[in-house]
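Entries read sequence, tokenised fold; example below:

***
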Amino acid sequence: MRHVFLPVTLGLALWVVPLSGQVSWEGPLMVSPSTPLGWGVYLTDPTPGNGIGIMSTWRSGGPFGFRIGLAEDRVEKVAVFGGIDVSGRLIAATDNLPVDVQWVTGAGFGIGEDVLLSVPLGLSVGREMEGEAVRVNPYVTPRVIVDALIGSEDPEAEDLTLVLAVDLGLDLSFDQGWIVRFAGSLGERKAISIGFSFLVL
């Protein structure tokens, strides 16, 4: 059932949404060295955008995360976006280096009147900390993104561009079953997402 969730959702979104405009799928990327497993639901203001959208994510025990969403682009038309992120541990926290470091990459799309394909590559640095009543996971994710614009009728639009961005994120958990997640992108990706991640067994 889990394996058909993403394709079915994407198919329904493409069927019901008038595609006009595109947004970036990975702003913010929301991948930390301790990214929670399960299903996530978020309000998001992606890049480029002119209003609030909604995004859903899924992450199981492997290195892959999946997402799909709908949002308004900068001309206030609805676009669909989605992608897959892949990550792996580089450095585990020690007394001398009290942070975890992992590499992160992926591929995804924003679809409207034209198509934006984006491939990020970066590092995620953070450390999960546990107190008496709350678990806190701050992290930062600097990355470079290759954007490929397909089908644009704008003569001034570049087909291939290199973008620099940094995510600042924070996860707060008061219960093992759910986590409050917030992240914002700075640099050439300016975006915000906030929502909840639920552990699904």
